[in-house]
């Protein structure tokens, strides 16, 4: 079946609409919002500590002082990945199993260093930790937009008549545009012209405030569905980077 046929199928369309309407009543939606909210401060902390540790460790490795710094940094990344695996399972419902760290199976300093360098689980955890900042910034922005815009629209009936408050679409000056279509016909020109004029719209009555509040419900519904989709993407990313147990090069 083609994609267009699937989308135009009435039962499928109803199922999609029903799922979108059920989103505000699902616990997983708000768990995803909590996960995105936590990602912002955690992402900043992860990024700063990891970048500083790797930079110092690599720059001082020629003096052998940087080796323990690198080891401590990678050890911190592994510990963080353990906590993030728990968060992904509890808040996002991700199917993330703990990988078998190759360093635990190695003996000797040289073998342990080789196991860490060639263990894809360590590199996956490092990629996840560094990408947490991007997830956090995107999640914080999304939450701020949904809560500020949706909340202000939803609460319009509570403050629309407050002295000094202005609610609505306020333009500095009216916008006037003329749309014309002219077709030459022999010695004549036949055309149609429309004038579009946009002016400010201010909410000054309770029906208008209720209309704005209804618009806020739509914004919240759309925003919660976007948050749910973002949580689903974060779950898949955690499964890809934290839960894949791939044999490392040291096993070959």
TrEMBL record:
Annotated ranges, domain Putative sensor: 35-239
Segments traversing the membrane: 32-54, 60-82, 120-149, 209-233
Keyword ATP-binding: no
Pfam families: Sensor (PF13796)
Keyword Transmembrane: yes
Keywords associated with the record: Membrane, Transmembrane, Transmembrane helix
Domain of life: Archaea
UniProt-recorded name of the protein: Sensor domain-containing protein
Organism listed in the record: Halorubrum miltondacostae
């Amino acid at each position: 079946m083609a994609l267009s046929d699937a989308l135009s199928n009435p039962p499928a369309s109803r199922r999609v609409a029903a799922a979108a309407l059920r989103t505000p009543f699902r616990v997983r939606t708000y768990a995803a919002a909590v996960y995105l909210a936590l990602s912002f401060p955690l992402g900043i902390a992860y990024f700063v500590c990891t970048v500083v540790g790797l930079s110092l460790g690599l720059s001082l490795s020629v003096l052998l002082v940087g080796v323990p710094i690198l080891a401590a940094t990678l050890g911190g990344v592994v510990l963080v990945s353990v906590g993030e695996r728990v968060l992904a399972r509890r808040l996002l419902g991700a199917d993330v199993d703990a990988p078998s760290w190759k360093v635990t199976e190695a003996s000797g300093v040289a073998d342990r260093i080789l196991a860490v360098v060639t263990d894809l689980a360590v590199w996956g955890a490092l990629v996840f930790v560094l990408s947490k900042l991007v997830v956090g910034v995107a999640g914080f922005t999304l939450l701020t937009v949904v809560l500020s815009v949706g909340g202000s629209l939803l609460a319009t009936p509570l403050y629309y008549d407050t002295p000094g408050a202005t609610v609505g679409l306020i333009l500095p000056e009216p916008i006037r545009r003329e749309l014309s279509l002219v077709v030459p016909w022999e010695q004549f020109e036949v055309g149609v012209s429309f004038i579009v004029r946009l002016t400010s719209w201010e909410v000054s009555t309770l029906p208008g405030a209720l209309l704005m509040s209804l618009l806020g419900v739509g914004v919240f519904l759309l925003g919660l569905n976007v948050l749910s989709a973002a949580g689903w993407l974060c779950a898949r990313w955690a499964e890809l980077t934290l839960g894949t147990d791939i044999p490392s090069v040291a096993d070959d």
